[in-house]
User: Which sequence fits this backbone?
């Protein structure tokens, strides 16, 4: 989107609202869209409720009022606007937004692939969309069948013995995995002695956070010069006090752990659980099955690998797959097939047929379960989308997904290798990590400046300053859904920025200049956040 | 190559220590502050806490990343820098001065031998 296409921004006389301070501080850059509160006019309504029926009034008569402690002292200060005010406000905000449906989104580690619209069609089928999580099993057979079949597909893809769809995000999948790990060690009388979780320094930041949340001590294992885990350091750290190794594979460097067999052997010899962070599964579909390789537990990110939306912060879905060791500890309830031959049900389903004799139910009777981690069975709408994606690609299609994702990342790696430093110069998987070190040291242009210049070119920047083990990191994940023309255009953008960093560094440091607001003062926003709307003069 | 104050000792984790009698003042180096970028939050230790050399004692958060703080020497915390909770940017603007993090009673002066001097640290970060 160019500046010229945007309507002139409304001005804000109060100087408050969605205004942004310039990096120099204090000076307002102008309001792009006022807050909805500023459009509020007393008594204006978008929704008018009908008068209560006589029957409802009769039913309410004689009921005790809400206790005083539960009543508001004054009405909630909600914006009072018409439906049209509301619609325009959010539509204008939506026009300022950036999305995969608009342009390239190479945000490393996030797998911002295109989300096929057929997923949305399936999720809106009335039988799914109008079902209720508290429907009795007898009238929820279609939804239960979908959950059971999706778990079967994820088992097939990952090589695990069992899958729970319940966790609502990758990090919650990690939490679920480590809670099961803790339950497993406790069941063997080792709950008190195994207190550490080993995490390579190339892992996702959520891994050590999860370990801490479950009460474990996170111990960092360094990477070797090739970006793999340092086997000697791993062996030295393993012992009877280690509960698990959490490994992101491929790692955040986009590198597949080529000593994974030795890593798994060492972990199992020490009696520990091997956790694989499956966030980067998009690189290995049809090529590597973690459960088969010997991992005990892995989470899937349906919103990454299986094309369910990232938008608006979710809802995500982070199912977990487990080996037979951890299966007894899976969250409840678990969708199960209670009548019918599983092979026949699967065969029929893949052929597009239902199985008349099949009956599904939710199994709550799992005495060793860690319990519930999420309401009902999880974010069901995401299951329909992921199931649709897997079924519409098929096994061979999913393998092509990963092959193309890896090809695209390596295409960018080769295309930019002379423009930016490659700290780990080897064939990568689905993402490639460059360093802006040269630009910073020689020209005073930081990775942040480069990211802002990418915004000016109309593309969402890659992940920056992560992984932490790469100085001035630029982590680029193109995904398989981009054409070679898009990749070429991105290479041209990145080469142009590298060229300008050398010959006209100020033009890079000045960016962005074509975005709705200029360079934001991220430090002040974090140090002194101003998040409250001043309703009246004097409010803070 | 940058130069660093001669009266300090440095850890490989980019913390510094200044010893004055039995008191050790600790902080993070200018190199660390520059690499972290704009620092927005410092999780300070409690007065009375017992720190162990090279053990984690707090967290520093910048617009880029969250990093652990590692004590360059062992000792009991006698004072923390009260200015940092309101002005974490002092770590960026004056890391060796007003941006000090905590004062400790130095447990073992021999631990200083395990730290780098200014030249050694300058070489580490070159």
Assistant:
């Amino acid at each position: 989107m160019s500046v010229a296409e945007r309507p002139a921004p409304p001005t804000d006389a109060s100087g408050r609202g969605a205004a942004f301070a310039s990096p120099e501080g204090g000076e307002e850059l102008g309001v792009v869209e006022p807050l909805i509160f500023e459009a509020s006019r007393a008594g204006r309504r978008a929704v008018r409720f009908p008068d209560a029926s006589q029957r409802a009034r009769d039913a309410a008569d004689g009921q005790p009022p809400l206790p005083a402690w539960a009543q508001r002292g004054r009405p909630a200060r909600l914006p009072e606007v018409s439906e049209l005010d509301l619609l325009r406000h959010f539509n204008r905000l939506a026009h300022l937004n950036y999305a995969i449906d608009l342009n390239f989104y190479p945000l490393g580690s996030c797998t911002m692939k295109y989300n096929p619209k057929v997923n949305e069609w399936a999720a809106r089928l009335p039988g799914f969309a109008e079902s209720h999580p508290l429907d009795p099993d007898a009238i929820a057979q279609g939804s239960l069948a979908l959950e059971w079949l999706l778990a079967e597909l994820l088992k097939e893809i990952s090589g695990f013995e069992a899958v729970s769809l319940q966790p609502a995000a990758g990090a919650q999948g990690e939490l679920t995995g480590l809670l099961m790990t803790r339950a497993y060690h406790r069941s063997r009388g080792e709950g008190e002695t195994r207190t550490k979780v080993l995490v390579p320094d190339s892992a996702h930041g959520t891994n050590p956070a999860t370990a801490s949340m479950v009460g474990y001590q996170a111990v960092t294992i360094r990477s070797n010069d090739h970006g793999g885990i340092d086997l000697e350091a791993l062996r030295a750290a393993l012992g009877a006090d280690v509960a698990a190794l959490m490994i992101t594979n491929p790692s955040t460097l986009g590198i597949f752990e080529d000593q994974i067999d030795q890593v798994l052997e060492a972990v199992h010899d020490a009696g520990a659980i091997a956790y694989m962070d499956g966030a980067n599964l998009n690189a290995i579909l049809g090529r590597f099955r973690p459960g088969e390789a010997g991992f005990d537990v892995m989470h899937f990110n349906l919103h990454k690998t299986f094309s369910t939306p990232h938008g608006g912060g979710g809802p995500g879905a982070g199912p977990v797959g487990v080996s037979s060791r951890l299966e007894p500890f899976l969250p409840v309830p678990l969708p199960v097939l209670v009548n019918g031959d599983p092979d026949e049900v699967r065969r029929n389903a893949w052929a597009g047929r239902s199985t008349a004799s099949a009956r599904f139910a939710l199994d709550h009777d799992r005495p060793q379960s860690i319990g519930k981690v999420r309401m009902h069975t999880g974010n069901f709408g995401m299951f329909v989308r992921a199931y649709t994606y897997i079924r519409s690609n098929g096994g061979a299609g999913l393998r092509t997904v990963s092959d193309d994702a890896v090809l695209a990342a390596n295409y960018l790696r080769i295309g930019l290798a002379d423009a930016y430093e490659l700290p780990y110069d080897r064939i990568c998987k689905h993402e490639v990590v460059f360093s802006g070190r040269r630009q910073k040291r020689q020209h005073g242009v930081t990775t942040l400046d480069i990211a802002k210049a990418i915004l000016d070119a109309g593309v969402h920047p890659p992940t920056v300053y992560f992984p932490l083990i790469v100085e001035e990191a630029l982590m680029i994940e193109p995904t398989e859904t981009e054409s070679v023309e898009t990749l070429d255009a991105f290479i041209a953008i990145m080469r142009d920025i590298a060229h300008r960093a050398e010959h006209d560094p100020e033009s890079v440091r000045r960016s962005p200049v074509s975005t709705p607001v200029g360079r934001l003062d991220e430090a002040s926003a974090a140090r002194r956040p101003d998040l409250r709307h001043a309703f009246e003069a004097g409010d803070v | 190559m940058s130069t660093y104050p001669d009266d300090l000792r440095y850890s490989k984790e980019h913390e510094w220590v200044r010893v004055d009698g039995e008191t050790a003042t600790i902080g993070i180096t200018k190199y660390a502050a520059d690499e972290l970028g704009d620092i927005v939050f410092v999780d300070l230790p409690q007065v009375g806490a017992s720190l162990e050399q090279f053990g984690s004692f707090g967290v520093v958060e910048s617009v880029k990343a969250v990093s652990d703080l590692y004590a360059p020497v062992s000792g009991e915390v006698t004072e923390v820098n009260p200015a940092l909770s309101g002005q974490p940017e002092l770590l960026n603007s004056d890391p060796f001065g007003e941006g000090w993090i905590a004062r400790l009673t130095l447990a073992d002066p021999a631990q200083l031998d395990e730290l780098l001097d200014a030249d050694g640290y300058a070489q580490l970060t070159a």
